[in-house]
Amino acid sequence: MPGYLIFILGASLLFAPVSAAARTVTESGSGCIPVRSVSEDSLAFHAGEYLKFTMHYEWGVIDSDVGWATVNLDSLTFNGEDAFLCKVYGQTTRLFDLFFKVREDFRSWFTRDGLRPLRFTRDTYEGRYEARNDYVYMWDMTGESRILADVYSSSSGQRYVELPLDGCTYDLPALFFLARNMDFDRVVPDRKYPMTFAIDDDIYHVYFILRGRETKKVKGLGTVNTIRFSAKLLAGNVFTGEEDLTIWITDDENRIPVLFEAPILVGTASGRLKEWSGLRHPFSSLVKRR
Question: CA torsion sign, 42 to 251 to 105 to 53?
């Protein structure tokens, strides 16, 4: 599953594939994140939000920023429903392009009230690897909901598959925004909580763990009051399969990630918040600007 940058952003998210054969079994067997109200007037975000992250890589003598990613949230009408459109775009720098050129373009449409996914597309170029996804979410009140998935990869070719769909299954950008509405009154520190998402031609189950509050210095940003999580990623040819990801989100009503780190099989990948605009709430957790 290429495009891990997108997953890191989702508590989630760029630079190499994870084995699609890997699957993690969660403790509870349910993929629902405990969230507070997801009605539009109660969300942690609104249309017009913009986030930009700097991607960093460390291995031996290499200690360099290698790319960037942006997250844009807009509103629109999708098939007659009031919806959000999230655009996530990431790429390597010109210098790193010489070694391993990456371009990632994820787009997700989901309802403004309830955050129910409607459509998802992905366009990935990583070195010589290419992958494309086009999902249509077919919601059926009789219990026959499914995802119609048109998927392509340069390694497996074109495939048309149907994926199972329930109220706890999201694509990665939609999962990112859902997780920002987590109900902390229902989340117990150090307990594993499941997340379920679809990408390529499969459904994956991972988990996150709330680790507690921490005041964190973030390069280029400053000192931020944060809430720290760890997350289980998919074992494969990038991640180790242990609790790879640590993510720090703002301890305010915005709940945006300011720093994330993931040890990979060769080195450590990380990202940090660089720019933002259009937040719904004051950035009150930023206690000292650098």
Answer: positive
Q: Is 117 helix (H, G, I), strand (E, B) or coil?
A: strand
pLDDT tens-place string over residues 152-193: 999 999 999 999 999 999 999 999 999 999 998 899 999 988
d(C-alpha 241, C-alpha 252), whole Å: 31
225, 215 contact by CB (below 8 A): yes
Which range marks the domain in which residue 91 is found? 4-289
Report the C-alpha gap between 279 and 290 in whole angstroms: 19
Q: What's the whole-model pTM score?
A: 0.87
Number of domains in the chain: 1
CB 10 within 8 A of CB 90: no
Q: How many CB atoms sit inside 10 A of residue 63's CB? A: 11
**For the ranges 23-32, 119-128, 214-223, 254-263, which has the lowest average pLDDT?**
23-32
